[in-house]
Amino acid sequence: MAPDESGMPEPPQPPQSRQPWWANHPDLEEMRRRTLEELECGARDPRPAVDEPDPVITEIMSGECRRGLHSARDDLDRARENYDGAIRAARTAGYSWGDIARILGVSKQSLHRRYR
Question: What is the CA radius of gyration of the chain?
Fold first, then answer.
């Protein structure tokens, strides 16, 4: 610091204020312009047209998905019962575990684990 005429050192000067790199970036300026344009258009037409009912509200009102899930669970239970019954019937009829496994497309070991 150099002293001034009074002999007192001059206070340090703040560095020149520089704007950040993004303050006048052309791409960002364009994005800013488009965003403002979209906001202005949205202010003129605040509610977009709805072509279809809301799927969540539709499900709440109809319960279709819930009924479908219950039906699928019941179908799966019946299929498991049919599967088990067919395996027991095949064993009673004299089919070997290997024959049953080949027909079902599963391993003999998986049948043994489940039915022995």
Answer: 39
